[in-house]
Amino acid sequence: MMGRCTMKDRERIFKAYETILNEELVPAMGCTEPIALAYCAAKARSVLGKRPERVLAQVSGNIIKNVKSVIVPNTNGAKGIEAAVAIGIVAGREDRLLEVLSEISDAQKEEFREYLRSTPIQVSQQKDGALLDMSVSVWSGSSCASVRIAGEHTNIVRITKDDEILLERVLESGMDTEREERYGLLNVEDIYCFATEAELSQVEGVLKRQIEYNRAAAEEGLRGDYGANIGSVLLMSGEENVRIRAKAMAAAGSDARMNGSELPVVINSGSGNQGLTVSLPVMEYAKELGAGEEKLYRALALSNLIAIHLKRGIGPLSAYCGAVSAGVAAGAGIAYLKEGDYDTIAHTVVNGLAIASGMICDGAKASCAAKIAVAVEAGLLGYDMYRNGQQFYGGDGVVAKGVENTIRNISWIGSRGMKETDQEILNIMTC
């Protein structure tokens, strides 16, 4: 099926999708919000030119929510904003972006503990600004510097040193025009067209890396003792089948990532958990079905792009659990592996969203792994429903006629409808 792609449109759309996959599927070590904060702090230290004697971190509510309870890698189990800032200052490599904490020695870990103990690090919540917004200001003697990141995890919008503005960018309400146009081309029908027809040489590298990195994280999660060990719990349930293994592998990757593993994962929509969720179940079903390498790459291209499409309308940080969009997208990728056509994939997405869209995000932490397992199950059930002649119809709650209209409804709920919910979650978490 060629969807709505004309020959002219097809080239433009396929090129846009290749670019999106290369932009989005990048490695990150640890939960992306504390890592972004460590990157911001490392950059501020670099601008100052010396180790700060005093630090102020000003962060949006959603940054507080996603940093508060998650272990920061290479800190021997430390959690929270102060830990992320301190390790970034002491040992962060700002040139490594979201892998800023990937090269830290034992000696630096000791330095971090002493710095965290002895250095005043003040944290305050920003009341205005973007949902993803952080600023780290640092002082040494009479010298000071500050760095602000907003909108995206590595998007530096302001740098100052003493009284001089070194960089300032206008924070747009959305992406730049070129990116906005590119992401605006996303729709399920054309994503299916791309997955079935495109020559994948331009994205093969990032998909191969996603397979390698995310499988290693899942295996580490099953091997070690991380958080609530949801992946291992699923495998010990007494049932040994691909459905259980698919959920267990995704959960195990999150077990490790949320609870101190130093392995990088390949993210999706700015989230490691979503990157794990959208890939590992598809990989597990590909192995079970004996799908070849090319078929797996095409299934992953489809699942990744659908997840990005779903999350784009919701926004990077929300009270809407991002695992839902990724789990539903994984269900679509599995449907593709099972030779599902466009209608099967579209209905899998609609059914999955109808099942699990009430799940809230209450920050990054050990329970994310359990939510991932639930989200993957929603995607699989959505597929099973349509395969057995069942579906949810327009007018069933938030379900509308047509997959894109349903996605639009979910986007509205996640981005607008749950704003008050998001604030109440933050109030509870910081009480």
Main attributes of the structure:
globular; alpha+beta; two-stranded antiparallel ribbon; 8 strands; 2 domains; single chain; 57% helix; 2-methylcitrate dehydratase PrpD; 431 residues; 60s Ribosomal Protein L30, Chain: A; 17 helices; six-stranded mixed β-sheet
Largest sheet: 6 strands, mixed
Tally of domains? 2
CATH top-level class of the largest domain: Mainly Alpha
Name given to the CATH architecture of the largest domain: Orthogonal Bundle
What does this structure look like?
The chain is α+β, with helices and mostly antiparallel strands. The protein folds into 2 domains: 7-28 and 186-430, 2-methylcitrate dehydratase PrpD (Orthogonal Bundle); 31-168, 60s Ribosomal Protein L30, Chain: A (2-Layer Sandwich), CATH 3.30.1330. 57% of the residues lie in helices and 10% in strands. The strands form 2 sheets. The chain has a 6-stranded mixed sheet with strand order 3-2-4-5-6-7. A two-stranded antiparallel ribbon has the order 1-8.
State the gist of this model:
This protein is an alpha+beta fold. It folds into two domains: 7-28 and 186-430, 2-methylcitrate dehydratase PrpD (Orthogonal Bundle); 31-168, 60s Ribosomal Protein L30, Chain: A (2-Layer Sandwich).
